[in-house]
């Protein structure tokens, strides 16, 4: 076994330490440079360990690591604090406090010359380790605009995102504040929030004008009421204990103390740095990556970030906000047992050029933004950067780790050479109390990326969603596949702040993705859309299995639109409104919904939405709330079954589950068995959900195996009523965003049908797809009705055939079912809805 070289670091050591256990290095940079020199001079080829003593390590600049600091598979470089916690702080201590007054209230004050000189600015203050409230109005909740002036109303062209530039306000809400130029106006709307700057206030007309263009119209929000807003960093709002205000011109910092606090016994800290730790390799060049660097048991605190003045934010998930810990062009690196807290943005971001990194056993909390961000594998589309709704206005995307935009020649060259999947693991973490500044940030965000493992985490207290996966709207081509979202405990989502959310939210085609054995409860939206599991915008070929969802506002499960998702063996219970919603009716099969328990109709229905007409329901068990009728898309149980739904399902006039929504009622367990569900499924899911290490983590990441990775084929089947083709995402002639409700065919005429297959997995399989018309007398297939092929990874195959409708049925299905040579292969089934042209079916 190769010799382990060990260096030591202690913040209390002298500046001339040599890194030995007797005379440790004083700073982390000294140790990093020593390891770098060791590697460069080939003095050691074995593992390297840096033992960091507990203490506070305040950084004056980001702690950066580059490819020359890398380890190898057999000789990793591990930074560890094992006897307590080393706090790596991007902030500084603030002293020099004196008693004073602000807005007639007694307070403490100190002057910061760096702020007055324009060299420092911060939006967060921590007192004795606790975040304090930046002065705001109103102190709790929001004001509402009073409408918009006539000129603004005339300019509104009705588009979904209309960035209004002025609004009226109610008397007493707004005035010519003393620091108009430094106030940030936060405007929540639908699923995002605007961060706006003020141009002027006209007190006579009760009119506020903005210098930043956002996305909201101010005259109405998603509930039909005037839009909400709040002032942050307003001097006149520093009124209550715990409030603070920083004056930019003078550098005067004022703080109203909490009861029991004294100047002598209080520690004040504010962030200096935007980024605390960065691992940066070349995101486009695999030969220049940071590799095999591990960080264990560190406490990262105090990072700052604020929008450029002309940037109102992003339209979803605050994805543009940077992270305190950043990986760029990094492979096989880990954060283990670390804490990230007291930061303005995201805790951790896994950026472009990253592969097989792990965030394990970490606690991410007290966050201005979100928990973990896993970004696109191939860069940002240009319109997201500088378009009308550009989330990155005034920002340097390459410096932030996104790499050049997607159509840049450098990006195209890297993609042509092949980009491996992200394959990031986030496991056994607690991620909570986020979105404190950027309200739409979430627990874990996955962009257009594949093979990520989000497992056994506990996520709570976010204002938007818990986990989001995918970043392609509609049915356009995507790189999002084979992601696993499993065994997570997610609750306390929404808090009535935003709308159109899910504890687990997905976008776009995602063959091979699984959402399984998650325990979800307490999802509360502001307006519409507080769902447990939400498959949105073309989500397709996702397996949603053995989840327990209870206590949501709008439903345990909702699909906006998508195709061929499998929803089976779940419990959906006790939503306030509908229990299940399937919104859009398209020419593709939306869902196969089987072996589920659905209880409680709230104020709505057990099943709701036109998408139910394109869903296969069977082998389920339903129970409405006691005293309420059981309705399914505006019809009762008997009629629902007459329409061909749930022919082997049960509806009982009693509870299937107890009042808490989890324990089977003994009298109704027979309904469970007939539905093919084990009665104790809820107890098993709840027991397993969340981190596996209940008390103490193993001492090193080296003791843990990576998440089990089974090589398998993943066959994505595209069944279309047109000839086979491989269009890209910008091809205009295909309905990527919205499909018709059915595919029209003509009686007796040959209608083209195509089946295209692609193996997105990492194993070879032989697969046979067989086409079948249901009912069989509705049409016949003229030509080949099956496709049998051996597909290596990334290989494609196509079948073109024709369909001739008999005219005996006005509507029917064409199904494509698969069999494979390997049990582990995910060969996904699909179906297409067809109907006779109206003049023939009338």
Q: How would you characterize the overall build of this protein?
A:
With 842 residues, this protein is mostly beta strands. Among the domains are: 221 residues, no CATH class; 178 residues, no CATH class; 128 residues, Immunoglobulin-like (Sandwich). Helix content is 7%, strand content 38%. It contains 9 helices and 69 strands. The protein has a 25-stranded parallel β-sheet that branches. Strands 3-6-26-30-33-36-39-42-44-46-50-53-56-59 form a 14-stranded parallel β-sheet. The chain is globular. The model has no long low-confidence stretch (mean pLDDT 94).
Question: Largest beta sheet, briefly?
Answer: 25 strands, parallel
Name the average pLDDT.
94
Could you give the count of β-strands? Answer: 69
Classify the secondary structure makeup into a structural class.
Answer: mainly beta
Pick out the low-confidence regions: none
Distance between the termini: 80 Å
- Can you count the helices? 9
Radius of gyration: 29 Å
Shape: globular
Give the DSSP E fraction (strand runs of 2 or more residues): 35-45%
Assign a percent range to the helix content: under 10%
